[in-house]
Amino acid sequence: MIRVLLADDHTILRQGLVSILAKDDECMVVGEASNGVEAVEKAFELEPQIAVVDISMPELNGMEVVKRIHQKLPDCRILVLTMHEEEEYVIHMVRAGASGYLLKDSASEELIQAVKTLASGKSYFSQYAAQVLANQYTQPEKWSDPYKNLTKREREVFHLVVDGKTTKEIARALDISVKTAENHRGKVLDKLDAANSAELVKYAAQHKLLI
Questions:
Q1: Phi and psi (nearest 5°) for 7?
Q2: Where is the Response regulatory domain (predicted)?
């Protein structure tokens, strides 16, 4: 039985995915998550064989979710299921540790096929995503790391700033002091060569990080 964790903030869609996978005798949904933080916590707790992860989720975006799960649970195979078909998303999610990439308008049969393929130890990419990855080899310089040298905590601060959070709100969200939050914010600005929050938002938009 393939143990699957589903992470998507849209309840109706998530329930639909559960229904699709429940109809297959080889798949069993062992957990659901409605935001990024919950997805990471449930992955660590349940240690699923497959994690199906959306990119756009509240509290912690899908890219960070994939990175954290992949780093701590390297045997857990991660399938990105998203509405984002831009080239940048495919590249960055694969770099984060995803083994598969599928668009939400795919047929239900393809979702099951993707889950089973990942469970067998192979990768699964939709035709479009596979083409994007192939093109990467012809223009590798195009896909620089948008996060550069940001630490895990700095990436969290980066996304909170981009989301419009104040320093106090960031401190509260991450359970750190205001001074510490301000220090992290300053390092993020320095590393990304941004003068202020507006330039961070611009940076995020240019690198398709508004997720």
A1: -130, 110
A2: 3-119
